[in-house]
Amino acid sequence: MLDVGALIVGLVIVAALGAPLLATTDPVDQDLTVVLKPPFWLEDGSLQHPLGTDHLGRDVYSRLIYGARISLTISALAALIGAVVGVAAGLIAGYVGGRVDAVIMRIVDLNLAFPLILLSLAVVALLGANLKNLVIVMAITTWMIYARVVRGLSLTLRDQEFIQAIRALGAHDARIIARHVLPNVFAPIVVIWTLEVARVILMESALSFLGLGVPPPTPTWGRMLAEGRDYLTVAGWISIFPGLAIMVTVLGINFLGDGLRDLLDPRLRGQM
C-alpha cells in the first residue's frame, strides 16, 4: 500500500508543481468556438484538448492539473497548522495535567460538538472565501484530532521511568517535552497528518462545490464538479475527471497513511 500510495501522491505533486509545463492552454482562457469539445478518444475530440472542454471552452485537462495546486496547497498547509496547534495543545494537556488539561480538553470537546462542515460553512461565510481563510478554516477543523491523540500518549509517557529519571536530573519541563516526549509521539502524528490531508481535500472540494471555496477564475476540483453538474447528460467529462482526480488522490493519500502506520508502528512491523 505504501508504494502505491507514494506513487499516486508523487504523480499528483509532480502534476501540481509542473502545471505550467504540462498544461496545454491557460486554465482560465475561454474559447467559445470549442465549447463542450469531447475528450480526444471520442468523435470530434482532439489532442489540443485531451480531456475535452467545458461550457465556456476552457480546457478541462489544464484546469484539472492547476486545480491540484489549490487542493494540495490548502490541504497540506491546513493539516500542518492544525498539527502544530494540536500537538502543542496535546503535549501541554497530557504532560502538565490538572486544570490545564481540563481547560484544553473542554475546548476540544466544544469544537468537536459542532459538525465540522457546518462550522466551515459558517466561518467561510463570515470571513469570506479566499485561499488564506480556507486554510484557517480547515486548520480549525483539524487540530482537535492531534490534541486528543497526543494528549493520551503524553499521559502515558510522563509516568515512564526514563522521563522521571530525566526530571530527577533537573531538566526543565519544556526541555523534557521537546527532547523526549515529542519524538515518542512523532510517528502517529505523521500518520494522522497524511489522513487529515485527505479529509481536508474532500472538505475543500465540498466548499468549492457550494461556491464557498477559492473565488473564480482560479480552477478548483470542487468548482469543476459544480460547473459540470448541469451538463452531465451531454458533457459528463466536465465533472467526471475532477471527480476521479479527487477520488484517486484521496485514495492514494489514505494508502500512504496506512503504509506509514505499518512502517512506523513496531507492533505491526513484524507482521509485514
Structure commentary:
This protein has 272 residues and is mostly helical. The chain has a single domain, classed as Orthogonal Bundle (MetI-like fold), CATH 1.10.3720.10. The chain contains 13 helices and no strands. It has helices at residues 2-17, 19-22, 60-96, 98-113, 116-127, 131-140, 143-157, 161-168, 173-181, 186-209, 221-228, 237-264, 266-269. Helix 11 (221-228) runs antiparallel to helix 12 (237-264). The longest helix is centred in the first third of the chain and has 37 residues, at 60-96. The model is unreliable at 268-272 (pLDDT under 50).
> The CATH topology, please?
MetI-like fold
Derived from helix and strand composition plus strand pairing, the structural class reads mainly alpha
Report the CATH superfamily.
MetI-like
Mean pLDDT: 86
Query: Per DSSP, what share of the residues sits in E-state strands of 2 or more residues?
Result: under 5%
Number of separate domains: 1
From N to C, what is the helix and strand string?
Answer: HHHHHHHHHHHHH
N- to C-terminal distance: 11 Å
The top-level CATH class is: Mainly Alpha
Contiguous uncertain segments of 5+ residues? 268-272
Q: Number of helical segments?
A: 13
The level of helicity is over 70%
CATH architecture type:
Orthogonal Bundle
Shape: elongated
- Rg over CA atoms, rounded to whole Å, is 22 Å
Total beta strand runs: 0
For the sheet with most strands, the description reads: none
